[in-house]
């Protein structure tokens, strides 16, 4: 079984909303992250959340105030609520998990990755 499986992507109009979910098959991970890769670009950090009591979060500047990362420990899932979507948010979004603590936006620290899910925002 894949360690991480994303769901919830799709096509939405500018200004619309989508919610991505990531189901983890093992527990516990130290932290979770969402990354994205747009056509012709490298993968970039979007949001991250650790598995501590207070759930420390981090966001890329370009999603602050629009995206929210959350977790459901009972269901072993992590979600990304995306609001006020823009065409430039179009990308393949990846869920990632790590077994070490540290800075949440460090891509190399994430050792488990989902298969990716397409999000397309039409103008």
List the helices and strands and how they pair.
Elements: E1 4-7, E2 10-13, E3 18-24, E4 31-37, E5 43-50, E6 57-59, E7 67-72, E8 77-82, E9 91-98, E10 112-113, E11 117-122
Parallel strand pairs: 2-11
Antiparallel strand pairs: 1-3, 3-8, 4-5, 4-9, 5-6, 7-8, 9-10, 9-11
Structural class: mainly beta
Mean pLDDT: 94
Portion of residues in beta strands equals: over 45%
Shape estimate: globular
Q: In whole angstroms, how far apart are the ends? A: 37 Å
What is the H/E order? Answer: EEEEEEEEEEE
Radius of gyration, in Å, reads: 13 Å
Low-confidence blocks of residues: none
Give the helix level as a range of percent. under 10%
Number of strands: 11
Mind describing the biggest β-sheet?
A: 7 strands, mixed
How many DSSP H or I helices? Answer: 0
General description of the model:
Helices cover 0% and strands 50% of the residues. The strands form two sheets. Strands 2, 4, 5, 6, 9, 10 and 11 form a seven-stranded mixed β-sheet that branches. Strands 1-3-8-7 form a four-stranded antiparallel β-sheet, with no helix packed on it. The chain contains no helices and eleven strands. It is globular.
Sum this structure up briefly.
The chain contains no helices and eleven strands. With 123 residues, the chain is mainly β.
Keywords summarizing the entry:
123 residues; 4-stranded antiparallel beta sheet
């Amino acid at each position: 079984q894949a360690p991480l499986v994303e769901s919830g992507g799709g096509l939405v109009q500018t200004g619309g909303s989508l919610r991505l979910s990531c189901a983890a098959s093992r527990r516990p991970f130290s932290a979770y992250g969402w990354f994205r890769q747009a056509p012709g670009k490298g993968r970039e950090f979007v949001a991250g959340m650790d598995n501590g009591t207070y759930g420390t979060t981090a966001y890329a500047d370009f999603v602050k105030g629009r995206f929210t990362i959350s977790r459901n420990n009972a269901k072993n899932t992590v979600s990304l609520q995306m609001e006020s979507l823009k065409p430039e948010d179009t990308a393949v979004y990846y869920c990632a998990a790590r077994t070490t603590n540290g800075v949440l936006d460090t891509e190399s620290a994430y050792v488990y990755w989902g298969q990716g899910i397409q999000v397309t925002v039409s103008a």
